[in-house]
Design a protein that fits this description.
By secondary structure, this protein is α/β, with parallel strands linked by helices.
């Protein structure tokens, strides 16, 4: 492995670090001992201290164990927008020695059922507005219990902030077997058993899609989760007095690690925004003197485009980090020129529970993945092979380090295909094409896998196609990515309608159905009807041909 990137290493940081040999839950317990009365979470002006945070975590952990029957190693779904209950639920599941299965809050019924069935989850923590998508699954497969959270339960003080209706909504009556109200759970006063999970126990199964179109669970241990959250803190100089703004969804590994777990490890304060809203973000930065913010590039673009941004003092911001999609050069320059801030880009996967690469704070390059972080090695090799390529040569990025996952849940073939051994070390095939420059910085060029990157969210065409085939009027569908000036890429679907539906079904009808059936970022923005789709001699859809046709049109 080349070490030329060491010349640009963050000052004072060793190349290899020692990670605490504990469960991730212990991070919260330690911070609660150190800073019991300090605000851990802030939610629309309601501050929750570390003492209160830990108390509610332990009560929920006890309830999961004593009432819901959760045992060591069991999977528990966590399905809501960003809120105090998400953070409490995450640490409570870990306190119960169980495994967090974060569910994308934009998922609908078919997607929620896949998470439940595939993971074998025995319980769920779900917000009340998402309960209708999960309740039909309750009692099926292994899922027997759901603790239902109402966001308004943590609106405990008056506020002049514009609280959205879905956050202000009062608790709804629960009807059905296996449902438990959050308030009743807290009032039950259950006590958890002794905490037994250690660094090598399973901790989190974030789901990522594969070329089969079916989301796969990435098996992470407490050790792998601990590595990126601790490294992220010391790499960027996070300290206990920092105030972090959480706008990235916690179900996403970057939001989970940078916006939730890292501040809690350091004993910092986390200001939570359930959904992105640029004016509210600016308001919160000013009101709470936010000093650190992890955001995808589209959030930064939107914030800077706000004509009212000048009304707010965001001068407290000291660092903005992110990844998922490259920051446009013009936007990065505007951010620096207006506020003196450098957008610190990084790179990671669900399989690496966030970063494998981050730009050095003192020498960041724009539209760059950065350099391999502590204890991490990376290579660029010829696609499909193991021969390391030279400076500037494009190939597949491989990753080796303690943050790399154990494998895909119940997917031995996919796990085997994801790894390659080089000189006795197990490297993850990232599926991304990139190159290394003369300084040892990594840049991404394209993707080996068939994947669409819409505002940092990964969209797998085969998964969208599978769901679209459930439409009663669709005979065939093929999904590709098309350039989008705001999202980076958007989803386009080529559709062949059934004979009896041609002429009567419009593109708007298909898009409307998709909006009701799948997460918003997966919904095709464009529909093109065709009489037939190109196929290979083996009968497989030739999606590459459609992709090339689309690119030719765009030129």
């Amino acid at each position: 492995m080349s070490t030329r990137h060491y010349a640009h290493w963050p000052r004072g940081l060793p190349h290899d670090i020692t990670i605490p040999a504990t469960s991730v839950y212990v991070n919260l317990a330690v911070s609660a001992v150190r800073y019991p009365d300090k605000p851990a979470l802030v939610f629309y002006d309601t501050a929750i201290s570390y003492r209160e945070f830990l108390r509610d975590v332990d009560l929920l952990a006890g309830y999961l164990q004593q009432v819901c029957g959760v045992r060591r190693g069991d999977r528990v779904l966590l399905y809501s927008q960003n809120c105090p209950q998400w953070a409490i639920g995450y640490y409570a599941i870990l306190r119960a020695d169980a495994v967090v299965v974060p569910v994308n809050a934009m998922s609908k019924a078919m997607e929620a059922e896949h998470y439940a069935q595939d993971s074998g989850a025995v319980a769920a923590i779900v917000s009340q507005e998402l309960l209708p998508y999960l309740q039909p699954v309750l009692g099926r497969h292994a899922l027997r219990h759901a603790v239902v959270a109402t966001y308004a339960d943590y609106l405990r003080v008056p506020t002049d902030l514009p609280v959205p209706e879905f956050v202000r909504a009062a608790p709804a009556a629960l009807a059905g077997h296996g449902l438990h109200a959050w308030r009743d759970m807290l009032a039950a006063g259950e006590t958890p058993g002794e905490h037994e999970a250690g660094p090598d126990d399973w901790s989190v199964f974030p789901y990522t899609s594969g070329t089969t179109g079916h989301p796969k669970g990435c098996i992470h241990t407490h050790r792998s989760v601990m590595h990126t959250l601790v490294t992220g803190c010391i790499w960027s100089g996070v300290h206990p007095e920092m105030i972090a703004l959480a706008t990235l969804p916690f179900f996403h590994v970057t939001g989970m690690q940078s916006s939730l777990n890292s501040p809690i490890y350091m004993g910092a304060t986390l200001v939570i925004l359930p959904r992105w809203e640029r004016t509210m973000a600016a308001q919160l930065i000013e009101r709470y003197q936010v000093s650190t913010w992890t955001a995808i590039s589209t959030m930064v673009v939107d914030l800077l485009a706000n004509p009212d941004l000048g009304k707010y003092d965001i001068g407290s911001l000291m660092r903005i980090t992110g990844g998922g999609a490259a920051m446009p050069e013009a936007v990065a320059k505007s951010l620096f020129d207006r506020f003196g801030l450098t957008y610190l880009e990084g790179y990671g996967l669900s399989e690496t529970i966030a970063p494998s690469h981050i730009n050095p704070p003192q020498r960041a390059k724009r539209q760059c993945l950065g350099i391999p972080i502590c204890n991490t090695e990376a290579l660029v090799v010829e696609v499909g092979g193991t021969r390391e390529l030279g400076t500037g040569e494009t190939g597949e990025i491989l990753i080796h380090g303690p943050q790399v996952f154990q494998g895909y849940w119940n997917q031995p073939a996919a796990t085997a295909a994801a790894f390659v051994e080089i000189e006795g070390k197990r490297f993850l095939r990232s599926g991304d094409l990139g190159y290394v420059d003369e300084d040892g910085y990594y840049f991404i060029v394209d993707r080996v896998k068939r994947m669409i990157n819409a505002s940092g969210f990964k969209v797998w065409p085969a998964e969208v196609e599978n769901m679209m085939y459930a439409h009663p009027d669709i005979q065939e569908a093929c999904v590709i990515g098309v350039p989008d000036p705001y999202r980076g890429e958007s989803v386009k679907a080529f559709v062949v309608l059934k004979a009896g539906s041609r002429g009567s079904v419009q593109a708007a009808d298909i898009i409307g159905w998709c909006k009701a059936s799948m997460a918003a970022y997966k919904v095709p923005q464009k529909i093109e009807f065709r009489d037939s789709l190109p196929k290979s001699g083996a009968g497989k859809l030739m999606w590459r041909q459609l992709q090339e046709e689309e690119r030719s049109r765009a030129q």
